[in-house]
Amino acid sequence: MKSYIFSSIMLIITLVSSTNLQAQETDSSKNNYVVVTNKVAQLQPIILTAEALKAEEGKVFGNFEVIICGQEIGDITDAEKINKFIKKAKEAGVTIVACGFSLNKFKIDRALVPKDIKIVENGILYNFQLQKQNYKSLSL
Questions:
Q1: Which residue, among 117, 93, 116, 87, has the nearest Cα to 103 in the 3D structure?
Q2: Contacts of 135 (CB under 8 A, 6+ apart)
Q3: If we measure between CA atoms, which residue out of 138, 57, 46, 30 comes closest to residue 94?
Q4: Where would one find the signal peptide in this protein (predicted)?
Q5: What's the CA gap between 67 and 96, in Å, rounded?
C-alpha cells in the first residue's frame, strides 16, 4: 500500500514538473502568426498584413508563417507567379511553407520548389503544432 501511494505521488510530481517545463518553452512575449492558404495570389494581402502587424507591434511581433496547401500548390514552382512573393516575404520576415502532403498528392516534384520555401510533411499538422505553441492561426 505504501509503495502504491509513493508511486502515485511521484507520478503526480513528474506530471506537474513536465507541464511547467512545457509552458516555459513557449515564449509568450511575442505575437506569432500562421496563415493557411491554397492560393499563391493570396500571398499579396497576407504579406501586407504581416508588414502592418510588424509596424504596429514593434518588438512584440514574432514569427509569421504562411502554409500553402491544396490543389494549386504547383503554382509555387512557377517562377513568374512565386518569385515576387518570395522576395516580399523575405523583406517582411515572413516564412513561406509548402505542404508536403499536397506536393505528393498533386505530383509536384520537390526539386522544383524554390529553396526559399520550407517544406513540411503535413501542412495541417504543422499548423496545429504551431497553434499549440500559441501561434494565432487563420485559414483562407
A1: 117
A2: 32, 33, 34, 63, 65
A3: 46
A4: 1-23
A5: 6
Q: Which residues contact 81 (CB under 8 A, 6 or more apart)?
A: 40, 41, 75
Q: What is the pTM of this model?
A: 0.79
C-beta separation of 89 from 130 below 8 A: no
C-alpha span between 101 and 32 (Å, rounded): 24
The DSSP annotation for 82-130 comes to HHHHHHHHHHHTEEEEEEHHHHHHTT--GGGS-TTSEEES-HHHHHHHH
Task: Check if CATH label 3.30.450.50 holds for domain 28-139.
Answer: no
And the C-alpha cell for 105? 498528392
What digits encode the pLDDT tens for the residues 45-95?
999 999 999 999 999 999 999 999 999 999 999 999 999 999 999 999 999
19/3 Cα distance (integer angstroms): 24
Give, in degrees to the nearest 5, the angle at Cα 35 between 82 and 118: 50
Dihedral sign (CA 123, 124, 127, 132): negative
Please state whether beta strands 94-99 and 31-37 pair in parallel, antiparallel, or not at all (unpaired): unpaired
Q: What is the DSSP string of 50-86?
A: HHHHHHHHGGGEEEEEEEE-SGGGGGGG-HHHHHHHH
